[in-house]
Every structure is written in structure tokens, then in C-alpha cells.
Structure to design on (191 residues):
């Protein structure tokens, strides 16, 4: 099982031998450390800015002997669950959010801009229906779980971050960063 700690390391225990390994998450920040630029902006504003800039960090999912990591460093990685060795890495065009979702034939990851979360985006759009926040594309990638090769990508336009979809009966139900709800085929990526 995944276990996090203030150093942003993780480990997985397997079977009766209880092997452990850890891997540093590239863009992790210590939960007990000082926010970035605290000396310039003060503790309260620096804490808020650090949260907005780093978003939700990395999502980790263990399935079928692999550990899949989607981080805000614009990569998705598959690690061998026993050894912790890198099996494959996929480079994304934006920051990844939420947990990787593992279906019977794909690893599903989502991403978008990390500068503003969905709740704040909704607050801004109440002021004006024309408000658009974020310059990066929101997407869902479906990756081959064994090779990391891209199976399909669904782009939902520009906007804020987007989270893990729900998978039910072969359909991905997803709320994008502009509060739009999508139903997408998990096999083809078509709405």
C-alpha cells in the first residue's frame, strides 16, 4: 500500500517478505517546511501561493504489480511494485492531477493548469460567464499499462486543473476544470 510522509517519499510492502523501497517524488514539498518565498510575502500569502503553484502534488495507484505515479512534474511513471525500478515514463504537455485510474486495459491520467483549482475557477466565472482561467489544455490520456504508449487523448480546451474521472461500464465520467461534465468512452476516448 502507498504510504506518504512529510519527506514526500513512498513505499510499498508486498507479500510475506515485506520488501520496502522508496522513491523521491521530484516536485514534492515538505509538509512541515516553510512555504516558498515566505521571507518576501509573509507566511499567510506565501502558503497560499505555494498551494496554488503546486496544486495537488502527485497521485499514486498500485495495480497488478505496478505502481503508477502521475505528478505535477509533467510525467506519468510506472514503477515495478516489488523493486521500485522505473518500467516506463510518459511525458505530458501539462501538469497531472488526481490519482491514475487503472482500467482493464489502460492507465487513465488527467491534467490541466495548476494555477487555479476548480472551486476558485467556479467563483471567478460567477462574476462573468466569459471568464477563462488558465492557458494550458485540460486532457485525459489513456496509456498502455505495460508500455506507457499513448492509446488516445481527449482534450477539453483550455482551463484550470481537472481531477480523476469515474469509470463505470466502460464510460469515464469527468468534470473538467471549467465545471463541464463529460461522458467519454474508456476504449476510444470519444464523448
Amino acid at each position: 500500500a502507498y504510504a506518504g510522509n512529510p519527506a514526500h517519499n513512498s513505499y510499498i510492502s508486498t507479500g510475506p517478505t515485506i520488501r520496502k523501497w522508496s522513491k523521491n517524488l521530484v516536485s514534492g514539498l515538505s509538509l512541515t517546511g516553510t512555504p516558498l518565498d515566505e521571507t518576501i510575502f509573509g507566511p499567510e500569502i506565501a502558503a497560499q501561493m505555494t498551494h496554488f503553484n503546486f496544486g495537488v502534488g502527485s497521485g499514486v495507484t498500485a495495480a497488478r504489480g505496478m505502481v503508477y505515479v502521475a505528478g505535477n512534474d509533467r510525467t506519468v511513471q510506472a514503477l515495478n511494485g516489488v523493486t521500485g525500478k522505473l518500467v516506463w515514463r510518459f511525458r505530458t504537455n501539462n501538469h497531472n492531477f488526481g490519482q491514475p485510474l487503472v482500467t482493464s486495459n489502460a492507465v487513465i491520467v488527467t491534467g490541466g493548469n495548476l494555477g487555479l483549482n476548480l472551486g476558485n475557477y467556479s467563483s471567478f466565472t460567477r462574476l462573468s460567464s466569459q471568464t477563462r482561467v488558465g492557458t494550458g489544455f485540460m486532457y485525459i490520456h489513456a496509456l498502455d499499462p505495460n508500455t506507457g504508449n499513448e492509446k488516445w487523448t481527449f482534450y477539453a480546451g483550455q482551463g484550470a486543473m481537472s481531477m480523476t474521472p469515474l469509470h463505470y461500464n466502460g464510460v469515464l465520467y469527468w468534470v473538467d476544470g471549467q465545471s463541464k461534465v463529460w461522458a467519454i468512452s474508456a476504449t476510444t476516448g470519444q464523448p
The longest strand covers residues 150-158. The longest helix spans residues 43-54. The chain is about 15% helix and 35% strand. Residues 97 and 111 are 5 Å apart (CA to CA).
